[in-house]
Amino acid sequence: CEILSSLPLQMSLYFNVYFFPLWWLITVAILYLKYPVLSDYYKFILVTIMILVSLTELIRLYLGYVGNLLEKVPELAGFWLLTLLPQLPIILFLLFNEGLKIHSLERAMHIIFAIFLSFQVLVAFFTLRRMVNTLASRFRLTEFHCLEEQCPVPG
């Protein structure tokens, strides 16, 4: 029995669990400070982004832990999709949109978060691919053994 879970992915998830509350606190504090100088549509966008990132990150980290440690392909695929589609573009938007009046501490936190997400996208992709290939070959071997038992070869 080969272990399919990824140690680098698990380490990244572990550190991400501790980094996310720090990122959230700093981002909310800086949002509170710069809220009066932002335009109305940026105020709405930032509040919506904070709510979306908070909910998505909790679900994403849970799926990552379950998918990696228990070697479950659907959960790891959900983790990969949640990392790739909503989280990474949102963090890149927060990092590169100059209309948001980005503070230097905020920029540093977004860069670290973007590095976490980029690393997790890459490692989760290769881990997912390895899991799918291994599980597919196990399934084919099991199917082959079942056919072999049902139809014995003459001789």
Automatic annotation (TrEMBL):
GO terms for cellular component: ciliary membrane; ciliary transition zone. Pfam families: Transmemb_17 (PF09799). It is a multi-pass membrane protein. The keyword Transmembrane helix applies. Its main location: membrane. It is found in: Cell projection, Cilium membrane. Keywords: Cell membrane, Cell projection, Cilium, Cilium biogenesis/degradation, Membrane, Transmembrane, Transmembrane helix. The chain crosses the membrane at residues 13-32, 44-65, 77-96, 108-128. GO terms for biological process: non-motile cilium assembly. InterPro entries: Uncharacterised_TM-17. It comes from the Eukaryota. Transmembrane component of the tectonic-like complex, a complex localized at the transition zone of primary cilia and acting as a barrier that prevents diffusion of transmembrane proteins between the cilia and plasma membranes. Required for ciliogenesis and sonic hedgehog/SHH signaling. Part of the tectonic-like complex (also named B9 complex). PANTHER family: GEO07735P1-RELATED-RELATED, TRANSMEMBRANE PROTEIN 17. Belongs to the TMEM17 family. This is TMM17 protein.
